[in-house]
């Protein structure tokens, strides 16, 4: 399948992640001119693997869809593009959709594509190599590097709470950019940090120690969302989009090693882990649970980041799952 570079400058300063920008595959055959153009925003992270693979292996083409994956190097860029109507939908976290709706950007979640289950983690609290702390409680007091007012802080507080550690006894250290946070951890500038995979595994490889993670805690729902005008005008195409995503998940689960080249190319797997990092198991696409929505909304309101009451129906669109 032909791949084309698709780049979009939506803010003046590009916020870099932990490696140089990786372009995303483009999908959509010229013969399907009647299909609406779906411009879908992505980030080069592990949880987006089914989206990348659906494009790379032709699952969007099989559904007769005209899909272009638009890569962004930061969530901020992606959010600005969606707000401006430059993309039809995107991959991200539930918190962002709530904040966009609170600011009257018409977008709804149509599915959860990824989550930490009982055997795989997405985020973890890691102690620095050689750190003297022996327990999660000691680390919380010593200091954990996070990005405040983001999904990282939400997950950090919920992981700590699940281990009986109160927010009031926790010292968070601001380190907004992931590459800087990782470097601060590995160099011992901070006692600990909350990181996403595969950087958790990289930190462990370098001598760090996982003290707690989100495995089985139902905290890390990664969602697919679309602008409501796209959902209203082209519901059949969105259902086909989800059929392609589900097919990609089945492909990954059936033959994970066949998916490894796509993962290594588009999900920024560190070179030292590219042969050994486990290809994740992809859960069946589903809608987020009401309790997940309530918990995230409640956290945003407790932080005074959102004043609007965010109901389930306001941010969830049913009827698009395969």
Structure description:
This protein has 322 residues and is α/β, with parallel strands linked by helices. The chain has two domains: 37-115 and 221-315, Periplasmic binding protein-like II (D-Maltodextrin-Binding Protein, domain 2, 3-Layer(aba) Sandwich); 123-213, Periplasmic binding protein-like II (D-Maltodextrin-Binding Protein, domain 2), CATH 3.40.190. It has helices at 49-56, 59-62, 75-83, 94-102, 136-142, 151-162, 178-186, 199-205, 228-233, 235-254, 256-266, 290-302, 312-315; strands spanning 37-42, 66-71, 89-93, 107-114, 123-127, 144-146, 172-174, 192-196, 209-213, 222-227. The chain has a five-stranded mixed β-sheet with strand order 2-1-3-10-4, sandwiched between helices. A five-stranded mixed β-sheet has the order 7-6-8-5-9, with helices on both faces. Strand 6 (144-146), helix 6 and strand 7 form a beta-alpha-beta unit. Helix 1 packs across helix 10 (235-254), helix 1 (49-56) crosses helix 11 (256-266) and helix 10 packs across helix 11 (256-266). The chain is globular and about 60 Å long. 50% of the residues are buried.
* CATH architecture level-2 label of the largest domain: 3-Layer(aba) Sandwich
Q: Which regions are unreliable across 5 or more consecutive residues at pLDDT < 50?
A: 1-23, 28-33
Query: How many discrete domains?
Result: 2
Helix coverage percent of residues? 25-40%
* Number of E strands: 10
Distance between the termini: 24 Å
Return the structural class.
alpha/beta
- What summary fits the major beta sheet? 5 strands, mixed
Task: Give the mean pLDDT.
Answer: 89
Silhouette:
globular
- What is the CATH homologous superfamily assignment of the largest domain? Periplasmic binding protein-like II
CATH fold node name of the largest domain? D-Maltodextrin-Binding Protein, domain 2
């Amino acid at each position: 399948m032909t791949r084309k570079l698709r780049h979009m400058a939506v803010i003046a300063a590009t916020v870099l992640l932990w490696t140089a920008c990786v372009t995303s595959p483009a999908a959509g055959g010229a013969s399907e001119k009647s299909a609406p153009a779906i411009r879908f925003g992505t980030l080069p992270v592990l949880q987006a693997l089914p989206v990348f693979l659906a494009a790379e292996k032709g699952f969007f083409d099989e559904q007769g869809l005209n899909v272009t994956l638009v890569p962004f190097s930061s969530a901020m860029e992606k959010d600005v593009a969606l707000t401006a109507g430059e993309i039809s939908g995107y991959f991200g976290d539930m918190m962002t959709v709530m904040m966009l709706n609170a600011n009257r950007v018409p977008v709804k979640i149509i599915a959860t594509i990824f989550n930490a289950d009982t055997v795989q983690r997405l985020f973890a609290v890691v102690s620095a190599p050689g750190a003297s702390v022996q327990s999660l409680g000691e680390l919380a007091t010593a200091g954990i590097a996070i990005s405040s007012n983001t999904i990282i802080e939400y997950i950090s507080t919920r992981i700590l709470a699940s281990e009986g550690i109160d927010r009031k006894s926790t010292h968070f250290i601001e380190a907004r950019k992931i590459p800087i946070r990782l470097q601060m951890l590995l160099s011992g500038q901070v006692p600990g940090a909350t990181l996403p995979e595969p950087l958790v595994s990289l930190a462990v490889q370098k001598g760090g120690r996982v003290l707690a993670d989100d495995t089985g805690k139902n905290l890390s729902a990664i969602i697919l969302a679309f602008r409501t005008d796209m959902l209203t005008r082209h519901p059949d195409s969105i259902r086909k989009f989800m059929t392609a995503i589900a097919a990609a998940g089945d492909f990954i689960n059936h033959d994970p090693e066949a998916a490894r080249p796509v993962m290594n190319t588009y999900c920024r797997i560190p070179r030292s882990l590219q042969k050994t990092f486990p290809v994740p198991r992809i859960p069946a696409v589903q809608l987020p649970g009401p309790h997940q929505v309530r918990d995230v909304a409640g956290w945003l309101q407790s932080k005074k980041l959102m004043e609007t009451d965010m109901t389930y129906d306001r941010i969830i669109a049913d009827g698009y799952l395969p």
